[in-house]
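Our consortium's second objective concerns turning raw sequence data into structural hypotheses that experimental partners can test. To show how far this objective has progressed, the report includes one record in full. It was chosen at random from the queue rather than selected for favorable results. The single chain below, 276 residues long, was entered without modification.
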Amino acid sequence: MKKQTIKIGEYTAAYTSVGQGTPIIFLHGFFGDSSTLKPLIKEFQDNYHCISLDLLGFGESSKPNINYLIETQVNFLQQFITILKVPSFYLIGYSYGGWVASAYATSYQQFSDIKHLENIVLKQLILIAPAGIRDDKFVGRYNHLKPLLLESPLIDFGLIIIAAMAKLIKKDKEIKFIREIRQTLLNQPAAKAMISNRLKPEDAVDTVEKNIHEIAIPTLIIAAENDNIIPLWHSQTYADLIPQASLNIIKEADHNLIHSHSQKISQFIKNSLDCD
């Protein structure tokens, strides 16, 4: 799917658009972009208008040098919806995108009270392994990635040498993965800012557990039983606090469930949309 772009003030939003029918807006995870959700989009594009957005600081959208708070992404999303003139839609967010989607849903009533936004209708919220719940166990979890944030050719040179040595002991796949993570962090300032600026419990200024009880639309939550990135209890917290929420847990799945269980996920979602 070829990406399109639109201007949002001083920024550019990149996105893919495929299919016809009621729009579904897809929001990707932390180390991804709009293409990450392609396996899921394929399940819906025959019956829905699937719009997948590169969030600010990711993919081919603008990458300003700012502190990427979730509120920034929510405003970026709302302006994107307004400019595209999406009247009524479903919103699907995966991982980091689930965090943005849930924060958007808590702000939705405020948006709908604004005169020129009053006809925009969020029909249903779908959260897949959503991030966004405060979890102090995350503190220090990504400290090992800090050296990968250094914009120095010495880091790349060192990784090249390590990769050559790793090949001899058949560890080249692990080093390749590390090099890919480095390139992702350098190319996606939102991910880089998240790791750099969320190192202490008090940095969790925009987690959503205090506000999601305000979400007043049907919400489907899909979680992976063996998720070691976003623990299962995060999804259970969403389900407990959102009044109209239902939770489906995919057994033996991990955080890569978008690729490993796309058909299972799509069936849960289709069942939910049929009830809308």
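The partners drew two points from this record. The chain has a mean pLDDT of 84. Residues 209 and 237 are 8 Å apart (CA to CA). Both points have been shared with the crystallography group to help prioritize constructs.
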